[in-house]
Design brief:
- The protein has 150 residues and is mainly alpha-helical.
- Helix content is 47%, strand content 7%.
- The chain has helices at 13-28, 31-51, 65-70, 83-86, 106-111, 133-149, and strands at residues 89-93, 96-100.
- The chain has a two-stranded antiparallel sheet with strand order 1-2.
- Helix 1 packs antiparallel against helix 6 (133-149) and helix 2 (31-51) packs antiparallel against helix 6.
- It starts with 12 loop residues before the first helix and ends with a helix.
């Protein structure tokens, strides 16, 4: 080759291949990252329960006067016993993380039930309001891959 040029040679390609293999394994074994994401979602959702906020940052619809009367003036929304808030759970199956509540009435509160006058008070979902859950999830996944490099 005439003229000016540089040559790049990869020495220690075994080390590079080993590093790439660790990163590839970390990318296919997401269970540790999913467990961390699941725990994060529990904490974030429980915090929203305290603030009575939907994932989009909107306040939940206030309790109806008859509901307040039935509850003896207790005005906390979706927290009479705290069961739904306290029993949020996640499940990891292969490459899927499922997060939510197994309480029968959870869907009623998430989506509402018009025929019974129960408004939707969404509590499940990634926050787009006061804080962004997606940013935290990406950070957890990045840390998971960085651990493979370390």
């Amino acid at each position: 080759m005439a003229g000016s040029f540089i040559t790049v040679r990869a020495y220690g390609s075994g080390e590079i291949n080993a590093l790439l293999s660790r990163i590839a394994r970390a990318g296919t074994d997401l269970e540790p990252a999913f467990a961390e994401i699941g725990e994060y979602l529990i904490e974030a959702t429980q915090e929203r329960f305290k603030l009575e906020l939907a994932p989009n940052g909107e306040q939940w619809e206030p309790l109806a006067p008859e509901t307040l009367a039935r509850k003896g003036g207790e005005d906390r929304i979706l927290q009479q016993s705290g069961t739904m808030r306290d029993l949020l759970t996640y499940q990891i199956t292969g490459r899927v993380l499922t997060f939510g509540s197994n309480q029968e009435y959870a869907a009623t509160h998430q989506f509402g039930r018009e025929e019974d006058g129960i408004p939707a008070r969404p509590f499940l979902g990634l926050t787009t309001g006061p804080w962004r859950d997606a940013d935290e999830i990406v950070e957890i996944l990045q840390d998971h891959l960085k651990d493979a490099v370390a």
